[in-house]
Amino acid sequence: MTALSGKVQTVLGLVDPDQLGRTMTHEHLTMSFECSYVSPPPADEAVAENPFQLQHMHWLKQNPYSCRENLFLQQEVSALRDELLAYKKAGGGTIVENTTTGIDRDLPTLRQLAKDTGVHIVAGAGFYVDSTHTVATKKMSVEKLTDIIVSEVLHGADGTDIRCGVIGEIGTGWPITESETKVLRATAYAQAQLGCPIIIHPGRNTAAPAEVVRILQETGGDISKTVMSHLDRTIFDEEELLEFASLGSYLEYDLFGTEMLNYPFNLDVDMPSDSQRVKALAFLVKEGYEDRLLVAHDIHTKHRLTKFGGHGYSHILKNIVPKMLSRGISQHQVDKILIDNPKRWLTFK
Ligand SMILES: CC(=O)NCCS(=O)(=O)O
């Protein structure tokens, strides 16, 4: 038991879990994804330089990472305020903003957005993928990394008194690097001390989620309070999915709204459509996993904001929930996915 037990920690302080309401468990409001820039084909350079025009929107949806300006979500604070107000109007209550060190976490802005809109925002502690680890981070011991993560939850991060309420998204690639392994071990040690929720960004390989679980378990991590993100671009085969689900983590489909033909980070992956995501959720519900499912949009680029013609943070509430209901997922099960499961996960033990 700690002072946080039985509570959820938002950027404005501790709240009772019943206050959260409908929750998107994997979003970004202010971040930079410059670490993942992909050069455009030479013929498209002019479009990439001048992206936010109606005639370029299709190109941008297909090539979101090939336009540098698209990667600076942190420039859109005013649009984000409007997004959060629209999210609240659509019935949303909470957003888990899991931007970690390496992709420009901005806690003061998160706190201001929570104050301005009344949406609960839960911030993320820890570190993103290896390519964003600084030389100093890579040199740190597991004990030092653990101390940093624990302090971000107990005292505040980035020189502020704003406290994180989850650890993650903890970034891992494939294969998992030495530095990422140290961060995973630190995450498990911190979780054991704090009884807190954790959320993982796995590498883009079918074997990656289970390998992360193995490392966390080896270090005493609590898999029942762990979210495995991005399953929609990682595990496609139903048998493999059930095998992974049996390990006991939360199973997150968090790229709703993303549809692209060629996924530049792994060209072997066919990014699913939203209909296919709903189908995967219905399958997992049928197989008995309704208490482990979570959903989100993982907005991390500008073009997905409604300001730029994108689907925004209310897409799941407005469009995906009706689709889920029409595909055999009951209202009770939808409420579990949007309210009960996030609440259970986010509550400190
Ligand atoms: C911010 C972030 O890590 N988003 C995930 C993008 S990915 O293409 O699903 O890895």
UniProtKB/TrEMBL annotation:
Alphabetical keyword list: Hydrolase, Metal-binding
Name of the featured protein: N-acetyltaurine hydrolase
Gene3D superfamilies attached to this UniProt entry: Metal-dependent hydrolases
Reactions that this protein is recorded to catalyse: N-acetyl-L-methionine + H2O = L-methionine + acetate; N-acetyl-L-valine + H2O = L-valine + acetate; N-acetyl-L-isoleucine + H2O = L-isoleucine + acetate; N-acetyl-L-leucine + H2O = L-leucine + acetate
Taxonomic lineage from the root: Eukaryota, Metazoa, Chordata, Craniata, Vertebrata
Ligand binding (a divalent metal cation 1): 26, 28, 169, 298
PANTHER family on file: PHOSPHOTRIESTERASE-RELATED, PHOSPHOTRIESTERASE-RELATED PROTEIN
Cofactor: record remark: Binds 2 divalent metal cations per subunit.
Binding site for a divalent metal cation 2: 169, 201, 230
Pfam families membership: PTE
InterPro entries documented for this protein: Metal_Hydrolase (IPR032466), Phosphotriesterase (IPR001559)
